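Exercise: predict the fold of this chain.
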Amino acid sequence: MSKAVSLWEAFGGVPDPRDAQGRRHPLPAILTLASVAILSGARSLYAIAQFGRDRGKAFAVALGFTRDVPPCCATLHYLFVALDRKAFERALRRWTNGRVAGGWESVSIDGKTLRGTQGHEVPGVHVLAAYAHEAKVVLDQVPVDAKTNEHKAALELLDMIPLDGKLVMGDAMFCQRDLSRKIRKKRGIGSGR
């Protein structure tokens, strides 16, 4: 797979959408703060901003911030609206891939609907994920368009993950000839549940 890199290093490749004069905080520091806060249970931009502020100056410096106070909720909002989602996902994939270079033998493919944070009125985003059991990590995921199904997204997802010698599992929806051919072509082993 790829060489292990820190989260900060992985986020260094994400293009900064802000104007040069509007950059008060380094982008990798902001993205690292958001990731650490979310992994610690933060579920909103306000919670992410508060997470950074509650931990003080030493924490901010350790994440790479050059100012005493991490960004506020509004700064996070405007940055995330403008951020290149695909570049961000590539950075996360690079970081994750460095941690699962070996040690996993099977992967499950399954779809999930991620609900919005504003309640039941907000439509959820449907994604198809590949989960490596032994490594306990999502290797990759792709959004499933409302006009298609998980089967077509699975063809795309299989191109994104290494399958050589790995057992690929999925429910009956994934027991299709073209998916089986792709798994065999990449030297993986297919199994329906």
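Check your answer against the key: The first helix runs from residue 7 to 11.
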